[in-house]
């Protein structure tokens, strides 16, 4: 197998996971105007829940399902318990300043990240543990030649593809999806249409929780699980979201795959130590060349 | 005339405040055993970095989750100047300020185009990527092993003057003058015309630009100043013994932000309070857990838990931090 | 009947509405006219819940609206067409209309289909362009879309904020006359805010004249239209 194909296949599988993370970030950003830095902390926590269930002899799939449900619950909880009270308070002097209104939720999400990491450490001890995959991680063989793609890669790509199809159907074909798009685009007109924008926003947090929780379940068979493992995923997901355009769901998915290929090719053709620098360089390049992202639209700043 | 006068008064006030802080640390250190003396020195160093956040976020509204990375820039540049070029430690500290400020200039040029979450995310990526450069260029930066540097021994003239000086006390004496000067600089900056310009940008960028303020240039200048401060803090922090990627982890950046937030992003007194909390709270918790016989596997996560909860409580109860709460109380009493 | 009693809405220390009282009778068109800054838009935004009044009350028949949320007010049959042809330009025409009836989807799916058909009959141009983004419509078409979005929720009271603003006179007249027909044929109650007093008073049953947040005249539309001294004093022509 040529290095090119190796890089291509592993880039696709990794990119699929980054696309999920980036999708989760953009969902919350669009519906609530917050970049949720706690997102992968939530995913880490739900993956631990799944891991615990599997240890207690639950089947992989029931643990998988429960992890996704807890991801949704955790996302909704963050919104209801923290973000909603924070953004609804208008008279606090600190929030009166424009930049502080965007800064305070970021700080709050970092607080959640810290708390979740500490709790995971307390509940499950900090040391790295493995996380099972439902498919054997062996390379697929055709005759005697083994391909550069494993059964697990195919499982990841398939699951993400299915998720993306379902998400697209949800957003374009259902009333709730329409309500979510409308709330993100113009909350006032949406409220005047009788839609509870607050509840729609909470739903956005919940779906984002599911997407990132799924990303956690799909990435940990390869990276193992510890309170800090998923930090890197957040950073890559953020870069992917910026590259694709923070305002575009399709862009975020595209950005995820682009990052997958960039990282995978740097890994194969250069060296793993260069990955961080490549991410930073790629992010800065994207910000300079096209700050609104590939598929994003320019923000209009109003006086 | 009056303008000149107020400037003089402000200058006098900040000189006094900085001197008071200086003496307060010295007096406090005399009460302490060596361990807490070195913790006090840690506070004095980290305070400079926290002040850089107060300057950046509190005064101009820009958020950085990567001050730890800029500390690393300061740490590495000073350590390299001492180990490779044999410069004196003092000169290296001063030069570290300039190197980090230059770095901040590049960063600021990128950051001026960004706001809110973009800037937060970019600086977070930076926090992770910068220390990895040291590993990438191992021959130059010594990789994971890092560079060993320290404050050296207290000079003879000092021991002659005030008697025996322990290593811990000496580290405090090295750091304190820098802390006092940094405090003086930040106090002055926030009370001058430049400071007001920064606050205008923080409160409403559009209005500020309509008032003729060059937003981009202002943001870059803030970044340069804040980076210089963080770099100095990083240099001092590294000279406790080691400059290595593990000394400047991502968590350091977040801890510094926590200190600034719980004290009050807009308050310099808050920055001092917050720094004391993040340094002494873990010690306090350790004492309590030892008494309660909580297993160590749980105990090591309690400081992080407490700091995270404190951060959340602050933004929920009073986003203006301890300083804001204090002001609120004073206001209430008046009425 | 919509009854507004001693309504005050403040922005910081400025009273945009200064103790306003009037009534709008069911099945009729009541128009609120006044110069720029008289408080007309604030009045509509307070009725629909977008602004919070500091005192006074708003009732719709026996229902107290004063402290209800925007969504709850819409759900009790009061729909606002906001100023400036407010549609969501990135969504298609059909999606904008669907949005207006979304909250009734589960309880009245059948009626929703009928209501959608009705607005398409009312504005055939919207049916032709139903799959295009709302942003590609002309000003008049957008206003039609904004009205359609409100109508599919089957409101009993329609609040219109300057529907003729920025439109060519011919188009404006067309839209006002459609609203007039709607009111006469379906018994819809209309509260029409307009800067163009002549157009509004020509179709309205009753007129309310606002100046600096106060009601300065509360007369049948015909009398108000005939009173040239009122117009000279408050509208400047």
From TrEMBL, chain A:
GO terms for molecular function: transmembrane transporter activity. Pfam families: BPD_transp_2 (PF02653). The chain crosses the membrane at residues 6-27, 60-82, 103-126, 146-171, 202-220, 232-263, 275-295. InterPro entries: ABC_transp_permease, BCAA_transport_permease. GO terms for biological process: amino acid transport. It is found in: Cell membrane. GO terms for cellular component: plasma membrane. CDD domains: TM_PBP1_LivH_like (cd06582). Keywords: Amino-acid transport, Cell membrane, Membrane, Transmembrane, Transmembrane helix, Transport. It is a multi-pass membrane protein. PANTHER family: ABC TRANSPORTER PERMEASE PROTEIN (PTHR11795:SF451), BRANCHED-CHAIN AMINO ACID TRANSPORT SYSTEM PERMEASE PROTEIN LIVH (PTHR11795). Belongs to the binding-protein-dependent transport system permease family. LivHM subfamily. This is Unannotated protein. It comes from freshwater metagenome.
TrEMBL record, chain B:
This is Unannotated protein. One of its GO terms (molecular function) is branched-chain amino acid transmembrane transporter activity. Keywords: Cell membrane, Membrane, Transmembrane, Transmembrane helix. It is found in: Cell membrane. Its main location: membrane. One of its GO terms (cellular component) is plasma membrane. The chain crosses the membrane at residues 12-28, 40-58, 89-111, 118-137, 170-189, 220-239, 259-281, 293-317. Pfam families: BPD_transp_2. It is a multi-pass membrane protein. It comes from freshwater metagenome. InterPro entries: ABC_transp_permease, LivM-like. CDD domains: TM_PBP1_LivM_like (cd06581).
From TrEMBL, chain C:
Keywords: Amino-acid transport, ATP-binding, Nucleotide-binding, Transport. The keyword Lipid biosynthesis does not apply. GO terms for biological process: L-amino acid transport. The keyword 4Fe-4S does not apply. Residues 2-237 form the ABC transporter domain. Gene3D superfamilies: P-loop containing nucleotide triphosphate hydrolases. InterPro entries: AAA+_ATPase, ABC_transporter-like_ATP-bd, ABC_transporter-like_CS, BCAA_Transport_ATP-bd_LivF, P-loop_NTPase. One of its GO terms (molecular function) is branched-chain amino acid transmembrane transporter activity. CDD domains: ABC_TM1139_LivF_branched. PANTHER family: HIGH-AFFINITY BRANCHED-CHAIN AMINO ACID TRANSPORT ATP-BINDING PROTEIN LIVF (PTHR43820:SF4). Belongs to the ABC transporter superfamily. This is Unannotated protein. It comes from freshwater metagenome.
């Amino acid at each position: 197998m040529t290095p090119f194909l190796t890089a291509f296949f592993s880039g696709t599988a990794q990119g699929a996971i980054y696309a999920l993370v980036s999708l989760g970030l953009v969902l919350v950003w669009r519906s609530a105007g917050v970049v949720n830095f706690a997102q992968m902390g939530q995913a880490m926590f739900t993956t631990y829940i799944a891991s615990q269930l599997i240890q207690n002899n639950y089947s992989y799939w029931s643990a998988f399902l429960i992890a996704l449900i807890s991801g949704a619950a955790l996302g909704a909880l963050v919104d209801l318990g923290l973000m909603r009270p924070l953004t609804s308070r208008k008279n606090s002097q600190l929030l009166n300043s424009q930049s502080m209104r965007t800064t305070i939720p970021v700080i709050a999400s970092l607080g959640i990240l810290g708390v979740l990491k500490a709790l995971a450490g307390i509940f499950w001890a900090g040391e790295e543990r493995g996380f099972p995959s439902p498919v054997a991680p062996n390379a697929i063989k055709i005759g005697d030649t083994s391909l550069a793609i494993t059964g697990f890669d195919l499982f990841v790509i398939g699951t993400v593809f299915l998720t993306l199809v379902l998400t697209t159907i949800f957003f374009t074909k259902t009333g709730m999806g329409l309500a979510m798009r409308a709330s993100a685009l113009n909350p006032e007109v949406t409220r005047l249409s009788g839609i509870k924008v607050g509840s729609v926003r909470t739903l956005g947090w919940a779906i984002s929780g599911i997407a990132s929780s799924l990303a956690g379940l799909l990435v940990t068979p390869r990276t193992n699980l510890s309170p800090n493992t998923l930090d890197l995923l957040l950073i890559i997901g953020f870069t992917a979201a910026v590259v694709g355009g923070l305002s575009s769901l399709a862009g975020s998915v595209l950005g995820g795959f682009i990052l997958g290929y960039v990282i995978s090719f740097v890994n194969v053709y250069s060296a793993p130590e260069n990955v961080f620098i490549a991410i930073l360089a790629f992010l800065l390049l994207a910000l300079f060349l096209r700050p609104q992202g590939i598929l994003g639209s320019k923000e209009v700043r109003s006086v | 005339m009056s303008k000149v006068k107020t400037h003089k008064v402000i200058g006098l006030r900040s000189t006094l405040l900085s001197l008071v802080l200086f003496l307060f640390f010295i007096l406090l250190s005399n009460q302490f055993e060596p361990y807490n003396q070195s913790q006090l020195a840690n506070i004095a160093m980290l305070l400079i970095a926290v002040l850089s956040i107060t300057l950046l976020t509190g005064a101009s509204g820009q958020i950085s989750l990567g001050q730890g990375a800029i500390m690393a820039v300061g740490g590495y540049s000073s350590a390299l100047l001492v180990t490779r070029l044999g410069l004196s430690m003092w000169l290296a500290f001063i030069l570290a300020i300039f190197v980090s400020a230059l770095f901040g200039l590049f960063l600021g040029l990128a950051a001026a185009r960004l706001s809110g979450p973009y800037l937060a995310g970019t600086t977070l990526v930076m926090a992770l990527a910068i220390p990895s450069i040291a590993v990438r260029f191992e021959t130059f930066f010594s990789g994971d092993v890092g560079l060993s540097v320290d404050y050296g021994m207290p000079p003879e003239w000092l021991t002659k003057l005030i008697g025996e000086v322990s290593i811990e006390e000496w580290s405090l004496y090295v750091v304190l003058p820098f802390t006092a000067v940094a405090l003086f600089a930040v106090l002055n900056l926030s009370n001058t015309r430049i400071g007001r310009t920064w606050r205008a940008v923080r409160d409403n960028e559009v209005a500020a630009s309509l008032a003729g303020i060059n937003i981009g240039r202002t943001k870059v200048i803030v970044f340069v100043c804040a980076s210089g401060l963080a770099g100095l803090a990083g240099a001092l922090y590294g000279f406790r013994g080691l400059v290595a990627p593990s000394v400047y982890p991502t968590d350091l950046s977040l801890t510094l932000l926590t200190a600034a937030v719980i004290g009050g992003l807009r308050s310099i007194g808050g920055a001092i309070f917050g720094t004391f909390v993040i340094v002494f709270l873990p010690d306090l918790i350790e004492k309590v857990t030892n008494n309660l016989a909580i297993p160590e596997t749980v105990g090591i996560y309690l400081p992080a838990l407490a700091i995270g909860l404190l951060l959340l409580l602050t933004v929920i109860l009073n986003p203006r931090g301890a300083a804001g709460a204090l002001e609120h109380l004073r206001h209430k009493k008046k009425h | 009947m919509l009854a507004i009693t001693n309504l005050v809405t403040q922005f910081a220390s400025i009273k945009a509405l200064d103790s306003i009282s009037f009534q709008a009778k069911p099945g009729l068109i009541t128009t609120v006219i006044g110069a720029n800054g008289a408080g007309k838009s604030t009045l509509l935004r307070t009725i629909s819940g977008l602004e919070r009044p500091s005192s006074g009350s708003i009732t719709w028949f026996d229902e107290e609206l004063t402290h209800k949320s925007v969504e709850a007010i819409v759900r009790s049959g009061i729909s606002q067409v906001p100023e400036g042809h407010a549609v969501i330009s990135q969504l298609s025409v059909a999606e904008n209309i669907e949005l207006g009836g979304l909250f009734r989807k589960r309880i009245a799916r059948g009626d929703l289909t009928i209501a959608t058909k009705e607005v398409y009959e009312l504005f055939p141009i919207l049916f032709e362009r139903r799959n295009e983004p709302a942003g590609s419509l002309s000003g008049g078409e957008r206003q039609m879309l904004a009205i359609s979005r409100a109508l599919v929720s089957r409101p009993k009271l329609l609040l219109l904020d300057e529907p003729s603003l920025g439109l060519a006179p011919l188009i404006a007249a067309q839209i006002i006359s459609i609203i007039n027909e709607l009111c006469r044929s379906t018994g819809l109650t209309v509260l029409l805010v307009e800067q163009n007093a002549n157009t509004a008073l020509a179709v309205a049953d009753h007129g309310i004249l606002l100046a600096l947040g106060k009601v300065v005249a509360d007369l049948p539309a015909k009398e108000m239209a005939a009173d040239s001294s009122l117009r000279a004093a408050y509208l400047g022509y």
